[in-house]
Design a protein that fits this description.
The structure is a homodimer. By secondary structure, chain A is an alpha/beta fold. The first copy, chain A, contains 9 helices and 6 strands, in the order αβαββαααααβαββα.
């Protein structure tokens, strides 16, 4: 079982895409996060849904629970307007790490060890050009999530 | 819109349940994590699928990528045996925080502010007994995930 067999399609957004579109994608697929890519095959970061929620809520409401309790419903309906015109690249935390990347030919054990080492909930799988694994770029085949990996490993036992 | 309307059912496991059963639950529902409860209404922690993957992979393979690359397929099939007999409570990281808890009557803005404040991907919703909100315990109604909250807030706008 190779990383290419474990990889599943996963929604991606580009750094210059609208944050509001990323939020719609997360909402529609009920995903905990979306993969941010820089070009077609370079995973750049994971944008968690919780990060977008943080951007929706004004700082004074985050800091003051009592105030948040008395905000009226009409205000809640307008929270998503905060994302209008904001690009995905601007939403990423400054220290957002690039997701770990496995080669298409890596084994399931290598993917599991990489996930364990990086404590990441997902690993991106990239097919590198045949002329050298160390070359930058490649083609993104999908991601292996921790739950998918458990599914495959449990199915095998 | 109140927290009780936002809450969705979410799989839970108890501290004394088998870790292997938790892994099967995560795998079956393709969930990034499962809610660990202590009794019927007390959310204790979130057990991420990636944490279970970490427990499957022996430390010497985590530390040595070159070694992980040469482990044979038969070994991969036996990784899940690592979880046999292990209980959920033993899998939680020592510093695993309890998930944030919202009251059933909290507003969507309060839930969003709580999620933003705690940087948590989910908020547990508990119905507290009518004789006092500060009382310990209550009934777990479900959870609000960040993506579900985005879905509801986007739908409202």
């Amino acid at each position: 079982m190779r990383a290419r067999d474990l990889a599943e399609p996963f929604p991606t957004v580009g750094l210059d895409d609208q944050a509001l579109d990323a939020a719609r994608l997360l909402a529609e697929h009920r995903l905990p996060g979306v993969l941010v890519v820089d070009g077609p095959g370079v995973p750049r970061a994971v944008l968690p849904a919780s990060q977008l929620v943080r951007l929706l809520v004004p700082e004074y409401l985050v800091e003051d629970p009592a105030l948040a309790a008395v905000v009226d419903e009409a205000h809640a309906d307008r929270l998503c307007e905060e994302l209008t015109g904001v690009r995905v690249g601007e939403c990423l935390p400054k220290d957002a790490p690039a997701p770990p990347v496995a080669d298409a030919e890596d084994t399931a054990v290598e993917v599991a060890a990489l996930m364990a080492r990086t404590r990441s909930p997902l690993v991106a799988v990239v097919e590198r050009p045949p002329d050298g694994r160390a070359a930058a770029g490649g083609r993104l085949l999908g991601v292996v999530t921790a739950s998918n990996l458990l599914h495959r490993l449990l199915g095998a036992s």
